[in-house]
Amino acid sequence: MKKKDIDVIAAGHTCLDLIPAFTIEGKVDKMTDVLVPGKMINMGECVVVGGGPVTNAGVSIRRLGVKTELIGKVGDDDFGKQILQWYETKEGHFVGMEVVKGESTSYTIAICIPGIDRFYLHHTGANDTFGYDDMNWDLVERTRLMLFGYPPWMKKIYENTGAELTKILKKTKDLGTTTALDMALPDINSYAGQRDWYAICKDWVPLSDIMVPSAEELFYFLYKDEFINKKNNLGPKETVLDNMTVAEVSKLGGDILAMGTAIAMVKCGHRGLYIRTGGKDRLSKLGAAGCGDLANWADRELWFPVYQEEKFVGALGSGDSAIAGFLSAFVRGLSIESCLRYANAAGSMNVTVPDGLSWNKGFDDLTRRIDGGWKTKDMTITETGWKKEREFWAGPNNRGQWEAAKGK
Asked: Which residues fall within 8 angstroms of residue 153, CB to CB, at 6 or more apart?
């Protein structure tokens, strides 16, 4: 087996992000107050950057001082050339990026109107044909941890009950590389939305050492009918996440531990991060990027509120940034508490900029902010078995060892 001389690979969904800036003063109540047929809307500058989890998480991890490679697929069209040029200009060369003749490159147009929940116009493009043969296995063999992002937006990956990604994850594990899996919500009414996601997850989750989905994604994939029922009964400007109880999120974390993952780090947007971990036996089988301290990581259940952001601009890429903060701390061998701090720090910095990358001033900058006494937003959990400990909320399944207090 080759020397593990790369810390992280971000593989999977790659696209070009186009983020037009709305110059509206104040907040808007309804989207139709702005997007009116026949109306000319004056806009600000459009930010054009590499996007998707391969870029937003992978490049962020690299900017946080971790040796990182990317594996993705673009077409030989103008958007594909623009993504590769952006990489070369901003970050240098990534050998795992594949250009395919005759295919279109994925793009996302992010519509972020002040006061309205963001939505996206998305084309999956070459991501739909990405598969096992597009992986650079030499890079994977040299890597301690591989993050695979957004498989529900990659047709070949999720077809046939997810057989293609199952094959990729098995091979990655065989090479001794730790696996991390990020998800994404498909359009419920689309082809992807009609797949049997519970059956797919039953194959993927046991092969994923670390799961980093959102609470809404987990809810949809494991309990689709309940998700749709909750979604159909939302009030104005409410989201499914707003109406999920702490007990429901905790159950989802327990569900995917029972399915076979070792670490479930569940993104809860403005409500922060929930984490649930397995026992020492499962955690000892993580692969090359193992836990820094098994006693600290095993049998934990924590919820960490978000940090107070300086100014909210938009949440595009905030989940990817949180994953970047978490994994960049994880591969450094830090405690579970520190990994959550860096995850929330990165996510909270992300929402202060329009894109998913320009917030990133490096790992030392996050450390300075955290060590400087950065305050979290107020949060109270009243459900049975939860109690406030340090700056965290500890759940009824939290039995592991807390990190040592500073100065001891």
From this structure: 13, 122, 124, 127, 184, 186, 192
In CATH, which of 3.40.190.10, 3.30.70.1450, 3.90.226.10, 3.40.1190.20 is domain 6-11+53-73+95-102+128-394? 3.40.1190.20
pLDDT band at 407 (very low <50, low <70, confident <90, very high): very low
CB 339 within 8 A of CB 298: no
Phi-psi region of 63 (alpha: psi -120 to 50; beta: other; left: phi over 0): alpha
Distance CA 403, CA 408 (A): 11
> Using 50, 70 and 90 to split pLDDT, how confident is the model at 408?
very low
Concatenate the DSSP letters of all residues of 291-353 into one string: -S-HHHHTT-EEEEPPBPPS-----TTHHHHHHHHHHHHHTTT--HHHHHHHHHHHHHHHTTS
The CA-based dihedral angle spanning residues 258, 12, 302, 209, taken in that order and rounded to the nearest 10 degrees = 40
**Taking 90 as the threshold, does the pLDDT of residue 302 lie above it?**
yes
- Residue 400 corresponds to which amino acid? G
Q: What is the pTM of this model?
A: 0.92
Q: At a CB cut-off of 8 Å and minimum separation 6, what does 75 contact? A: 99, 100, 101, 102, 103, 104, 105, 125, 126
Domain-wise residue ranges, the chain? 6-11+53-73+95-102+128-394
* 86/83 Cα distance (integer angstroms): 5
Examine the pLDDT at 134 and tell me if it is beyond 80: yes
At CA 391, angle to CA 253 and CA 179, rounded to 5? 35
Query: How many Å apart are CA 166 and CA 153, to the nearest integer?
Result: 16
Residue 386 pLDDT level (bands cut at 50, 70, 90): very high
Tell which wins on pLDDT, 92 or 394: 394
Task: Give the burial class of 205: count Cβ atoms within 10 A of its Cβ; 0-12 exposed, 13-18 middle, 19 or more buried.
Answer: buried
What pLDDT band is residue 406 in, cutting at 50, 70 and 90?
Answer: low
